[in-house]
Design goal:
The structure is a homodimer of 425-residue chains.
Chain A (H helix, E strand, L loop, with lengths): L9 E7 L1 H4 L6 H13 L2 E8 L3 H14 L2 E5 L10 H8 L4 E3 L1 H14 L5 H6 L1 E3 L3 E3 L8 E6 L2 E6 L3 H23 L5 E8 L3 H7 L10 E8 L2 E8 L4 H19 L3 E4 L4 H11 L4 E5 L5 H6 L9 E7 L2 H6 L5 H7 L4 H15 L3 E7 L14 E7 L5 E6 L4 H24 L1
Parallel strand pairs in A: 1-2, 1-3, 3-8, 13-14, 13-15
Antiparallel strand pairs in A: 4-5, 6-7, 7-8, 9-11, 9-12, 10-11, 15-16, 16-17
Amino acid sequence: MSSSRRVPQRAALLAIGDEVLRGEISNTNDAFIAERLFELGFEIAEQVVVSDDPQAIRAALVRLRAEMDIIVSTGGLGPTEDDRTVDTVAELLATGTHADEPSLEAMKKRFATHGFEMTPNNLRQVRVPNGAEALLNAAGIAPGFAVQLGGAEAIFLPGVPREMEKIFIDEVLPRLTRRLADIGGPPPAVRTWHLYGMGESHIDHRLAGILNGIEGATLHFRTSAPVNHVKLVVRQGDAEAAKAVVDKVDAEIRKRIGPGIYGVDGETFVGAVAKALRAQEATLAFAESCTGGLAGELITTEAGASNFFRGSVVAYANDVKTGVLGVKPETIADFGAVSEPAAREMAEGVKRVCGSSVAVAITGVAGPEGGAPDKPVGTVCFAICGPGTTRTSTKLFAGTRERVRMAAAYYALDLARRYFDTRKR
Amino acid sequence: MSSSRRVPQRAALLAIGDEVLRGEISNTNDAFIAERLFELGFEIAEQVVVSDDPQAIRAALVRLRAEMDIIVSTGGLGPTEDDRTVDTVAELLATGTHADEPSLEAMKKRFATHGFEMTPNNLRQVRVPNGAEALLNAAGIAPGFAVQLGGAEAIFLPGVPREMEKIFIDEVLPRLTRRLADIGGPPPAVRTWHLYGMGESHIDHRLAGILNGIEGATLHFRTSAPVNHVKLVVRQGDAEAAKAVVDKVDAEIRKRIGPGIYGVDGETFVGAVAKALRAQEATLAFAESCTGGLAGELITTEAGASNFFRGSVVAYANDVKTGVLGVKPETIADFGAVSEPAAREMAEGVKRVCGSSVAVAITGVAGPEGGAPDKPVGTVCFAICGPGTTRTSTKLFAGTRERVRMAAAYYALDLARRYFDTRKR
């Protein structure tokens, strides 16, 4: 049966599993898949979640195969009796199932390495419907598989996000890219800019009218506090023309936003901080109070952080501020622990005790208690010191304790990211 | 038209909006709603996400009204032309729309307070279909509303999570509780146990057969690494009988799992650590290496942590371990920075410099680089010291850098949680 050649191709996501259906786990798979399908150029027409019940799976597939060009399904490929996806698809195809040889071999090898014993359930897990094309699972046991269901190409993947993402990137993305190329439409050109230090409405305002006169291009905003993402999708002309539009908009966005852009296309905020420090061969230390260790935790999410990160002192109690960091008791008495003078002495103290070239201090009121009229909840004082003079600043962050702490840690990291730029000016 | 009286009542969740459909924002609303509907006693039969397109909304409602007893819809109630839910429902009911007076009044008052001007779009946002029952939105502008669609009661809520949750708790939960009471079934009795220190398969094994001979009770497992949750739902007899079953299972679960249970019904792991420390009037400090500050960050998510948490030294570089914590250079030379002797000196050092009564040290190989044959990636050494002798231990955690660090931080917190218990034995 030949697949539909309509453009854009209509895609549905089908998640199978009681845990998602009942809200016991969040359906993060669908956002992952939808974002990538959309970038490839598919129209995502529907997302559906159904239970492990074969009748429910069957009814959903029968409905979707009549309406969609592709279906991407996740879940129901586990080892237990509850996992019924393979059998249900085989029944729909009026065929049987067999063990996928490459997956079986990979499993045997894996189990032998770890000295595990294979159970009948494990053997169950490497089955695919006869006639299906297996998609090797390099991150787990159960292979994914692809079949033609009526007019739709249906792709089935495990529900474990790590395994699903691995198969999706290794096997499904190239497959769908080829499919679209066969149909004739070039994939849209896509670029995402990652921004720190501006609210969504502020970004929206700065970018107003930026697409005026450009056909077939759309901008999409996503907030993941405290950072924002702006995605441009250009579905126009050939790949080269679309790329030219992206480059033109890129130049204009950089002009309008400036150094608030810390990266593009998946570059991380922490990676940008690390890059700035590495470029200067600088080493970093933090003195943290209200963030409790979060700034250090964030910077060390970067593998190889030991090249530039020396350590932190989390001075939650005031006598740790004085005893370990050498903050003067009279500074705390005169100005309070949440003050720019205290932040300055914390930064200079941690630079000295950790032997870093740059140090940032954070001291604030994360709440919900501890606010005062002159220092309400959300008040955070910062200091950064390095080869030159020490600079201090005070910010008022909105939101919950968690939000305030996260905002403060990001602000501290951003001070480090921009330290050498701003020194030059 | 009278609503179906079948038990359990079948519920569908319908999310309306291109942002969710395209994966630009995660669909957290459905997990929130599904979990609560399931606990009330509904069978969640399906979750669907469709675009803002009126045809797609209409098709989904026409299909679901034939199959479901209730439909809970989110999204599409915003101020813009893209928000088409109200009009689409009105068309399905062959009626018009009107401004909901209480919502209009509330909006006027709100805008007057802030000195905002009302736009035609705002007026658009307080409309509901004629004949609908409006559900006041105390957290925003657009009211929710309930209508009968064929055999199904359909409830429409805004997509903004804060607004949706407010209306859901204020208006929808009482409404659905009454609905179920009318039909005759008491709500199920529910309890959730929170566990640390055991894998899901291990928990599964220990709890095998625990519901034998108990009718109408089900156990549900959820992993949120490194903790696990076990939820019991009892749909049997009257409320008192169901509660008795819950208590009986509670006693048995505690017997089988022991101190791995750190709380029930939403109590947090960090809260349990804080409780144990407060009960002993103990104070805590951390010496962290591979976790970069995560242990301190976690413990300070607890508001009021300053009562028991003094601070941390994040000794990422070896000379911070020696310089600030007083680890002997020969200890690192002889045993390595990732070793129990180093962990011991780190814990004793941070206890001294932070002046705490208890201190925990973490030093390990988080990966992906830095592993060695005798200390592979995932190897983490711990020490805890307090009033008595210092205890050390070594664990091998599996998974990514992020997983290893999180597992190590939780293990360190758990050492503190159980320190006084294990000392007594």
